[in-house]
Amino acid sequence: MPRSIKLTNKKVKRRGNNEGSVYKRKDGRWCAQVTIGYRENGKAIVKYVYGNSRQEVSKELAKLTHEVFENGYSAFAPTDSNKFYPLLEEWFYTFKEPLVSSRTAEKLRNYIKNHIKPEFGDFEAKHIDFFRMQKFLNGMLKKGHCLETAKQIKQLLNQFYTQYLIKQGIVKVNPLDDVKIRTIERNDQEKETMALSPELRREVMIAVADNPVLKPILVTLMLTGMRPGELIALRWMDVNLENSDISIRLAASREIEFDEEGNVINRRQVISNTKTVLSVRSFKVAESVVECLKTWFAYQTEQQKRTGINLTSKDCHVFCTNKGTMRSYYGLRSMLIRFLRRNNLNGYDISFYTFRHTFATMLLEERENPKIVSELMGHAKVLTTLSIYSHVVSKTVYENTASTLDRVYSNVLADNEKQMHP
């Protein structure tokens, strides 16, 4: 007896040969996806294509499958050819992150996560124009975000467009080209508070005079212009007290480790290269610094005899802890905060960078050549120095100019008098 055949209206959802993954979305469009590569962590890189029919996406998918067959798996490919955020994320992890420090990477990640993704995450790249970009950056400033943050986000997006979206033909123009951000320069009063005033310099130095640890740190910072990270990394081998020389070769910095999702899993302080190539420098130091460091060396020598811990060998950090380990920036900052509170100086917004700014300000007040100051500070360009300390330079320049004009004019009058009355 033949078996009866049961009829059903259930549709067969079996995919066609070589179609890969093809399915219909809730919005009615068809989507196809295929693995075209793998990241270093083994995670697959998936390419998506969209269309109005199964046949349309199957045709595009066939092209992709053929490319993979011919060229092999790719180490990089955009996750989605339409959406702005997946493209930005893929570009950042592949091209931008490997070129910056972990600290900078963390900052940029936060910009993307907290600002860019909420604004543009659901948009297609081609639908974001200069008007939307301008409105986005204007909104950041209205919400109270600092100007520097808005500028850095604009720079990041500009790199994304020029280095990837335009080169890949995903968009034709860069909407950032016409976007403007208002410039808010520090006024002279704000710039002056970056450094200690002459009166405050005296007050701080008197207060720290009896502090055997903090005094050599603050004197060294204020009379050399070192960055805090450079001071932390300084070793005795970099200091020549006989010749009054100090060499800056390295700096302490914070290294951050991330998981695959971009979350911070570890932070640690490491020794790395200085901020710029020109930050590597050697220079003569003031006798006040030499005397202060000699006193500090003697103090460390006594500590070394008492504890048996090596504190003064050439490879030891100059301002190491009592255990001979490298100090952390946060440990130093805590020490400074306690000192300021004890001496009623905590209302002046003083940080370790205040002493670096004071170094430059004192030299410029004494009419030192800005080019020399720039080199001592380790700035990449003298324009950086002139921009930060323009209020100091302008005062000295105007005073010198007035004196020069008076002298030249007096000479002109004298020469004229001689001609009239030989």
Count of all domains: 3
Instruction: Order the strands across the largest sheet as they lie in space.
Output: 1-2-3
Mean pLDDT: 81
Terminal Cα separation, in Å? 146 Å
CATH architecture of the largest domain: Orthogonal Bundle
Show unreliable segments: 1-19, 75-80, 186-192
CATH superfamily of the largest domain: Intergrase catalytic core
Figure out the total of helices: 15
Percent of residues in β-strands: 5-15%
The first-level CATH class name of the largest domain: Mainly Alpha
Alpha-carbon Rg, integer:
32 Å
What is the string of helix and strand elements? EEEHHHHHHHHHEEEEEHHHHHH
Overall shape: extended
Structural class: mainly alpha
User: What's the CATH topology label of the largest domain?
Assistant: hpI Integrase, Chain A
Number of strands: 8
Helix proportion of residues, in percent?
40-55%
Kindly describe this structure.
The protein is mainly α. It folds into 3 domains: about 50 residues; about 100 residues, DNA polymerase, domain 1 (Orthogonal Bundle), CATH 1.10.150.130; about 210 residues, Intergrase catalytic core (hpI Integrase, Chain A, Orthogonal Bundle), CATH 1.10.443.10. Helix content is about 50%, strand content about 10%. The strands form 3 sheets. A 3-stranded antiparallel beta sheet has the order 1-2-3, covered by helices on one side. A 3-stranded antiparallel beta sheet has the order 4-5-8, with no helix packed on it. Strands 6-7 form a two-stranded antiparallel sheet. The protein starts with 20 loop residues before the first strand and ends with a helix.
